[in-house]
């Protein structure tokens, strides 16, 4: 199975969980890598946050052209195979929502992101956390490493990370961490895991977090 065989719901959402992590300055230039149908970028345009919104997606869904939102530009292809020379030091904000774990060479991707970002720009990254307790149960208790449609064991994941490894990957690629937040911390609903995390003062936060969110600034190289 590949990306083209994934369900439409996999690609259709507004990433409010990422939007909350950056200042809502007006009229910024935004690039989203893994833009799906452009829902998040279109939302940023509608709210007046983005004056220019460009999305990169691995393939074009030619069977559902009506799903694509009206943003400034869609670019289809592998980010590591694309050279966007006209966008060097161009974007104020670059979003990478659950993207890097799908890429064989994420360091190359981040080097391109670094090149396309303004000196004062920021990136927002979300990535799954393989240290989540469900992974322990699945592998060590059930003896099962079966891939799934989505989530930590998404069958299109080619790399797996813990919080520490995500931070190392990003900071070794020319970025400085501004803020980190776990999914269990920003989860708005109620759950047993969230209650336990609060009662234990976050000691086991990494075991309860399926995902981590990083906000980073560009370091001049």
- Report strand %: 15-25%
Rounded to an integer, what's the Rg over CA atoms? 17 Å
Overall number of strands: 7
pLDDT below 50 for ≥5 consecutive residues: which ranges? 1-11
Largest sheet: 7 strands, mixed
**What is the CATH fold-level name?**
Rossmann fold
Q: Structurally, how many domains make up the residues?
A: 1
**Which overall shape is indicated by the principal axes computed on the Cα atoms?**
globular
Task: Characterize the structure shown.
It is a single chain. With 221 residues, this protein is of the alpha/beta class. It has one domain (3-18, 26-218): Vaccinia Virus protein VP39 (Rossmann fold, 3-Layer(aba) Sandwich). It contains 8 helices and 7 strands. The protein has helices at residues 16-19, 39-46, 106-116, 133-141, 163-171, 183-186, 192-199, 205-208; strands at 28-33, 50-57, 73-76, 91-97, 117-128, 175-182, 211-218. A 7-stranded mixed β-sheet has the order 3-2-1-4-5-7-6, sandwiched between helices. Helix 3 links the parallel strand 4 (91-97) and strand 5 (117-128). The longest helix is centred in the middle third of the chain and has 11 residues, at 106-116. The termini are far apart. 32% of the residues are buried.
